[in-house]
Amino acid sequence: MKVKIGQPQSWKRVLQFEVPKEDVDVVYNEKIITYKKKISLPGFRQGKVPLHLIKSRFGKGVFAETVEDLVQKNFEAACKEHGISPVSKGSISDLKGEEGTDVSFTIETEIDPPIEIKGYDKLMVKVSPGTIKDDDVEKAIEDLRERNAEFTDVDRPAQKGDFLTMEYTRVIIDDEERKDFKNPTYPIELGKGQLKDFDKGLIGRGTGEVVEIAVKFPKDFSSEQLAGKKGVFFVKIMKVAEKNLPELNEAFLKKMGDFPTLDGLKEQVRKDLESREAERAKNEAYNGAIDSLIRNNPFDVPPSRVEEYIDGLIEEMSRYRRVNEPPPRREEVAEKYRDSAVRALKRLRIVDFIATREKIKAAQEEVDGEIEKIAKMYNQPFDQVKQTFRQNGAANRIRADIRERKTLDFLIGEYVPAA
């Protein structure tokens, strides 16, 4: 086998193969002999068919199998010899060869190009959490009241702040009637919707009424399939409910965690806010460090990696898409998230490079600690959960997450690798 390797892009390798006739004949003849042992023809017992009959009847098919084997085995051997680790399926072209001749072919494949990340030990990124103010605590208390509100059905026209249960009796989008719109799963709060025309059309209406509402979806509407379009909704109001916020009394404090006083609840809320702010600030520092390294260490990401990442996004969007939202279109997702995909993939490579260089790993006790938290959360025996996680690969994902977190902490000066 002869192979020439080209590198038209940092992420692309082009391998040109020439397999001499002698090597082709060896594989071809081995396959012919194997066929001879298995085949029977009229007038000949199994294994007794003459070779010339086998070649005349099955030679072309056997040669095609021979070429297929040669392509696969020579490609694998060349990759191993030259340290090529494909990240995409190889593309075969210029395949030439007949029985009794040399065989030549070209394979194009993609790789993760070699990288060298510099300056990661000189970053000046620090965690800078903001101060939690009294107003932040008060707002959080109000949010708790909102989440624990009770609802009472009312027999009056709907007003702002009410919650409406409703059904769509007819939906028209850009003059086309749509049958795929499902009724809202939960009551909607008047005054909080994205579509002001929708809220306006429902205010003042009561239970049992059917309301015709014309809307214009904004260009930045959450559903890209509806953004910028016009719609007409025929809505039947099934129920109007009034929201009642709980008083800040002893019953409420007990429900929130059996706090003896309102000050005790506020103290806990402040601690929770400070913890979330610290986490937000740390993630901001992580992103700042990664962005700096991306700017100062340019490298390419193979297109197949990006496409695979986008496929994963589409699968996730399809799994969690909202009611009435059409399936995501690949072209739109790719256009919107391609830059984010490239950044995420660069982040993975940068973290892996630094973790490898600095010998940053997850200790077994750290992995066990995370598994123990999950076991306690679901009230399951630790050993059972650990065994399950080993079998389904979750333990390796936990290990990878810990390695990434420690590496990011190293970048922002909050972790020092063991010597």
How would you characterize the overall build of this protein?
- With 419 residues, the chain is α+β, with helices and mostly antiparallel strands.
- The chain is 48% helix and 17% strand.
- The chain has helices at 21-38, 51-82, 134-147, 196-202, 250-257, 262-296, 303-320, 330-357, 364-377, 382-392, 394-411, and strands at 2-9, 12-19, 91-96, 103-110, 150-153, 163-173, 176-177, 188-189, 210-216, 230-244.
- Strands 5, 6, 7, 8, 9 and 10 form a 6-stranded antiparallel beta sheet that branches. A 4-stranded antiparallel beta sheet has the order 1-2-4-3.
- The radius of gyration is 33 Å and the shape is extended.
End-to-end Cα distance, whole Å, is 46 Å
Number of strands: 10
| Average predicted local confidence, pLDDT | 93
Helix-strand sequence: EEHHEEHEEEEHEEHHHHHHH
> Helix proportion of residues, in percent?
40-55%
Class of secondary structure makeup:
alpha+beta
Proportion of residues in β-strands: 15-25%
* Count of DSSP H/I helices: 11
Low-confidence spans: none
**Cα-based radius of gyration, to the nearest Å:** 33 Å
Global morphology: extended
Q: Biggest β-sheet, characterized?
A: 6 strands, antiparallel
